[in-house]
Design a protein that fits this description.
384 residues; 45% helix; alpha/beta; de novo design (two linked rop proteins)
C-alpha cells in the first residue's frame, strides 16, 4: 500500500482511499504535505488533518462556484464532487466530540448533492422508511437494458464510512454501466442515520434489509426479483447476517469478511491489528450506543456469523484482502466454510502482487470493485 505518512496506518488508509475514489494526487499532496509532522502525533493530530483537507476543499468549492457562474457546469460539478470527497474522508476520522463536526458533515452533503445536480442526474437522494423514521440514501438509476426495470444492489457501509464514501468510490457507476441500479444506504450506526437521527447499530441487520427491500418494491424502475445486497468492512457482517434471514435478497457480497467482529474487538483490546479510525473506542461506543467499553465488548460477542452463515441460501461472494490489517484473513475462510447452504458461494482473496490486498481493497479499489461488479452481473444473469 502507498504510505504517504510512514508509520501511520490510519492516515495512509485515508490517503489511498481518497486517491482511489476520485481524488487527485496533486490536491491530496497539497493537503498532506504541511501535516507530515502532525501524523506522528496520531489521534492528537487528527484536527490538523481536518483543517488541511478542509483548506483544499474550500479552494475547490471556490473554483466550482466560479466555473458555475461562467456556465461551465461539468467543471463545476467535478470540483464540487472532489471537495465533498475530501471533506467526508477527513470528517470520518474526527473525534465524536470535535467542535463543528455535524456542520462539517452537513456541508459535505450539500456539496455532493450539488454535484448530482450538475453532472449526475441519474443519482438522487432518497429516504428508506424505517421504524417511524427514514434511512437517508442515494439511488443511482441504471438505464434499462431490455426496456424493463433494472436489477438493484443495496450497498451498506461499515463502522466509519458513509453513503458519501460509497458514492465517491464509483462503484454505483460501475454497476450502472452493467445495467444495475444501486441503493446506497446510511444504516443505523453510520452516516446521517447516526449523526442526524441518532440511530445506532444493532445485531439484527435483517431489520434494515427488510426496510430496504420494501422500499425498492415500491419503485417501478426496479426488478424486484433481482435485488442483492453488498456490505463493505463492518458491512461484511451486516450484509451476510441480513441475507441469512431476509430471503427476498437474491445475492449477497461480503466486501471484507467480517465473520466475527466481536472477537476482533477483544483482539483490539490486546492491541492486535490496526484500528480503522482515530479515537477508536470513543467511536465504537457512539456507533453502538453503548455506555462503556466493558459493556460494548460483552454485547459485541453477538456480532458474529457463527451459527448464521449456514442459513444463507442465496449466492454469496466473499472478497477479502490477503494483507487486511484490520480483519484477519482466517475469517474469510471461516465464512466460506460455514456457508454450506448458499446456492453459489465463492471466496476471492486479493494478493499483494495484484493489488487489493488491504482492508476492503482500498489500496487498489478499482480492481476489487470491478471484480465484484462482474460477479454481481453474472449472478443476476444466471437468475433470469
Amino acid at each position: 500500500m502507498f504510505e504517504y505518512f510512514p508509520g501511520n496506518y490510519i492516515w495512509n488508509l485515508g490517503v489511498v482511499a481518497t486517491l482511489n475514489s476520485g481524488g487527485t494526487i496533486d490536491e491530496v499532496d497539497r493537503a498532506c504535505r504541511p501535516i507530515r509532522e502532525a501524523a506522528a502525533r496520531g489521534d492528537a493530530g487528527t484536527g490538523d488533518f481536518m483543517k488541511a483537507w478542509q483548506r483544499i476543499a474550500d479552494q475547490l468549492e471556490g473554483q466550482a462556484r466560479q466555473a458555475e457562474d461562467a456556465g461551465h457546469l461539468r467543471t463545476a460539478g467535478q470540483k464540487y464532487l472532489r471537495a465533498a470527497a475530501y471533506i467526508c474522508q477527513a470528517e470520518r476520522m474526527q473525534s465524536v466530540s470535535s467542535p463543528g463536526r455535524k456542520a462539517i458533515y452537513e456541508h459535505c452533503l450539500r456539496l455532493i448533492e450539488k454535484s448530482f445536480e450538475l453532472i449526475d442526474p441519474a443519482t438522487t437522494r432518497v429516504e428508506v422508511p424505517f421504524e417511524g423514521a427514514a434511512l437517508p440514501a442515494y439511488f443511482t438509476r441504471a438505464a434499462p437494458r431490455d426496456g424493463g426495470p433494472a436489477p438493484c444492489v443495496i450497498m451498506w457501509n461499515g463502522l466509519d464510512s458513509t453513503k458519501e464514501h460509497m458514492y465517491t468510490s464509483g462503484w454505483c457507476h460501475e454497476l450502472a454501466a452493467r445495467g444495475i441500479s444501486t441503493l446506497m444506504v446510511d444504516c443505523p450506526g453510520s452516516g446521517e442515520a447516526l449523526r442526524m437521527l441518532g440511530l445506532t447499530a444493532r445485531v439484527e441487520t435483517e431489520d434494515w434489509a427488510r426496510a430496504c427491500v420494501d422500499y425498492l418494491e415500491t419503485r417501478e424502475d426496479v426488478d424486484t426479483g433481482r435485488i442483492g445486497l453488498a456490505g463493505w468492512s463492518l458491512g461484511g457482517f451486516y450484509a451476510p447476517r441480513a441475507a441469512a434471514f431476509e430471503k427476498r435478497l437474491k445475492l449477497v457480497v461480503a466486501w471484507g469478511a467480517n465473520h466475527n467482529w466481536g472477537e476482533v474487538q477483544k483482539r483490539r483490546l490486546e492491541r492486535e491489528g490496526e484500528n480503522p479510525v482515530p479515537h477508536y473506542w470513543e467511536h465504537v461506543l457512539w456507533v453502538w450506543g453503548e455506555p462503556d467499553v466493558g459493556t460494548f465488548i460483552k454485547n459485541a460477542e453477538r456480532v458474529t456469523l457463527e451459527g448464521v452463515a449456514g442459513k444463507i441460501t442465496c449466492p454469496f461472494l466473499i472478497a477479502h484482502g490477503a494483507n487486511d490489517r484490520q480483519i484477519p484473513l482466517e475469517y474469510a475462510y471461516r465464512s466460506y466454510e460455514q456457508a454450506v447452504n448458499s446456492s453459489k458461494r465463492e471466496l476471492r482473496v486479493f494478493t499483494r502482487e495484484e493489488g487489493g490486498a488491504e482492508h476492503v481493497g482500498l489500496d487498489h479499489l478499482p480492481h476489487v470493485a470491478s471484480f465484484i461488479a462482474d460477479w454481481v452481473t453474472d449472478t443476476f444473469s444466471e437468475s433470469r
